[in-house]
Amino acid sequence: MGMNNTPAGERVHIGFFGRRNAGKSSLLNAVTGQELAVVSEIGGTTTDPVYKAMELLPMGPVMMIDTPGFDDEGTLGEQRIKKTVQVLEKTDAAVLVVDAVEGKSACDDELETLFKEHEIPYIIVYNIKSAEKKQAAPEETFVFSAPLASKCPMQSDIERDSADLRANITNVIYVNAQTGAGIHELKEKIAALVPAGKSRPLASDLVKPLDVVVLVVPIDSAAPRGRLILPQQQVIRDLLEVGVVTIVVRESELEQTLAKLPEKPAFVITDSQAFEEVAAVVPADVPLTSFSILMARYKGFLKMAVEGVRAIDRLQDGDRVLIAEGCTHHRQCDDIGTVKIPRFLKQYTGRELVIETSSGMGFPEDLTPYALIIHCGGCMLNEREVLRRMRFADRQGVPVTNYGIAIAQMKGILGRSIEYVHI
């Protein structure tokens, strides 16, 4: 998979924040070398967060996010500010853009406080928007020498003074988005904010090279035509990279496929919705799990999800259950989130439950009305956003689990499905 095809959930998310007309969009365009965002002298041009997947050297695949002005006013302004705060929940590194002439404001200080509360590494960028404006250097950065007091700094001056900053204030830099001065150093500082990517495996650590692994992939009305869903693609790639022999079959051909193999496979990984059928076919001594369970482990919330699934057995008539998905997609007639899991819940619990659904960024802030949350695997969400949702539920005392673990519990095979998966 090339850099440009890297899934959104696997990209480092870099958010650009600041007041209206501080130059966020101009700076984003300068950093990326592309006209990604609309630029205008009129404050408030960016009305909604703008996302752009791209490659940013030396970091690699990233998701750049241009946010509305945090000092926006009125009812619409409040909505834009709320969206900006939502962006923080998925931001791996933040860039606070400050107008170099006006300096920092209470609004910028508030954003800094939010970065710290969310434990987001950040850098403060004083953007010199025009060569004709008089410079007023903020206290947090260097003071220009007398000859520069009445004009915008030149490239050499910025590079010299920025070098002094590195030894003193590592998260502050002066740039000029129009001329490109300081942009190269800014890229390096942004890259330094994010730790080197971890090579957490999806499934390759559970087997060894030349092991045979069978992947069970149903092809039904809900399966995307002409392609596999993302967790299936990622597991295949993860296994191939370490030399595992990977066999992909439908559940309808699984029994015949196992009979043709000279020996039992080292592992069987199935789509969650075929769990029951697959478990009946796969020998009891062959490790079995699901793509969804592997995704929960990969995203870092498997333990919490296993603990949360016990709440299914405590559900009572009238309890509200939220089924949440991290992406939006066209609903099929037998959709797993809106049709199959509600059906499984009714059959398993025998209770009259109130089922509610959410998708994309529509995850509720108040989770206390719910007795249980069943989340998708989160393949389209980055790790920070997935863990935020899990911890958000935990802080409100609401049990949370995911599709695969919930289905395994309701089909009576949870113990088997996590036996060989390191929690």
Give a description of the structure.
This protein is an alpha/beta fold and 423 residues long. The chain folds into 3 domains: 3-193, P-loop containing nucleotide triphosphate hydrolases (Rossmann fold, 3-Layer(aba) Sandwich), CATH 3.40.50.300; 204-294, Rossmann fold; 302-417, Rossmann fold. It has 14 helices and 14 strands. The chain has helices spanning 24-32, 74-88, 106-117, 155-166, 183-193, 230-241, 254-260, 275-281, 291-299, 302-308, 336-349, 383-395, 403-410, 414-418, and strands spanning 12-18, 50-56, 60-66, 93-99, 122-127, 172-175, 212-216, 245-249, 267-270, 288-290, 320-324, 354-358, 372-375, 400-402. Mean pLDDT is 80; it is low at 37-46 and 132-168.
How much helicity do the residues have? 25-40%
Largest sheet: 6 strands, mixed
Fourth CATH level, the homologous superfamily of the largest domain: P-loop containing nucleotide triphosphate hydrolases
Number of spatially distinct domains: 3
Can you count the beta strands? Answer: 14
Q: If you compute it from the alpha carbons, what radius of gyration comes out, rounded to the nearest whole angstrom?
A: 25 Å
The run of helices and strands is: EHEEHEHEHEHEHEHEHEHHEHEEHEHH
Kindly, what is the distance between the CA atoms of the first and last residues, rounded to a whole number of angstroms? 28 Å
How is the largest sheet built, in terms of strand order?
Answer: 2-3-1-4-5-6
Q: In CATH, what is the class of the largest domain? A: Alpha Beta
